Each structure stands twice: as structure tokens, then as C-alpha cells.
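hiii, so i know i said id send this last week but things got crazy w the move. better late than never?? heres the sequnce for the chain we talked about at the cafe, plus the structure i predicted for it. fair warning i was half asleep when i ran it
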Amino acid sequence: MVFAANHALVRDSVAGILHAQEDILLLGATLHRVEALQLVADQSPHVIVLEPSEILNDSVSTIRSLRRAHPRSALLVIPPYRAGDRTALLEAGAHVVLARDAGAGALLAAARYLATPAKSDAARESPIALSPRELQVVRCAAAAMTNQQIASRLGITLGTVKRHLHSAFRKLGAVSRLDAVRKALTAGLLSAPVPAPAPVALKHGARAEGTPPGHRDTASAA
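okay and structure toks below
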């Protein structure tokens, strides 16, 4: 395992946590992007842990560079960004995006998950080719969002959400929303689902916006 940090305090703290684990071998820790790329090239680690720059575009560029140069290394990213920016990091090639306040236990669990050959292979080489938008929709479904919430979150229509869900169902061989989430998890596509929005309270008998009376949305059925 290799750790590339953006702050000395984070580097020293996380390196100390990783070094203390008997089942984790930390091959090196660095602060600089160029040194990180060289360290990964020299060591060929199973897992790269990355604390990226505060600038999102720079982080995306670094992740893409690492994925292109080292496609066999799983990438665990600990960004300083708000939850909404995680999608950009996942689409750039990160396998797991861990919230900064997740804690040492979550860090170690994610690192061990990616270091397990069967898990990391699934995360790196899933045979299921969902489009970026289909993957976003399934991640939102995994976060227990309704179709209307997904539409609002992604800025698309309710009908488009349903089309993406049905297409993802077909590619995953899923028969329901829950089945799709389970199969996407098994394929390594949902190692870091986006967080669900705050629940919306509806009065008794009210229905979600855009849903006609008596309508049952088959794409949202569990």
C-alpha cells in the first residue's frame, strides 16, 4: 500500500494508523504528486490511498494519471470536498471515496476491502459496462433516493431517470431496484454510494410531485 497526502499532518497520522496494522504493509508515504507517481511506479502497490489537492480539477487529473499508469492498483481517495463532489472523483477512476470525518475504522475497512484480491479485481475490472449517467442513477438508488429525488439531484427529468434505471436493470440482469443495487455492489460498482438527501415529509395521502393518482412506478419498486 502507498499513501500520497496533501498535508504533512494527514500524512503522518494516516501513515501511523496503517503502520500499526499487522496485516497492512505500507510501502511508502509522500506529500508531493510527482513523488507519489514515482513511488507507485517503483512499488506497484495493490492499493493507493490518496489525499488529493483542495482543487477538484487537480484531483481529477491526478486520479486519471494514476489510473492510466497503474490500472491494476485500486484507488482509495480521502478528499476535502463536500459530498456532492464525490461523483467527479468516482468518474475519474477512484474505487472508493471516503469522507474526511469517516474515522480510522472506516479507512482500514476500505483499505482491507480493496486489498482483498477478489474484491479489488471486481472493483478494477467489472465486466458490466454501465454508462456514467446510469452509474450515477444506480448510486443514488443505493442511497435510498426516490426517482423524483434522483431527478432533482442530477438535473434530469423523471422519465430520464426511469429510462436509465431500466437500462441499468437490463445490463445488470436485475429484476428490481434492490436487486440492481446488490448486483452493482457485487460487481464493485458501488463501493462509495452518494449520500441520500434529507427526507421530505409529505402529508398523509399526498403523493410525490409528478406522480399521477394510482400510478405505481415499476422502476422504483424494491
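btw Residues 192-222 have pLDDT under 50 and may be disordered. thought thatd interest u
miss u guys!!
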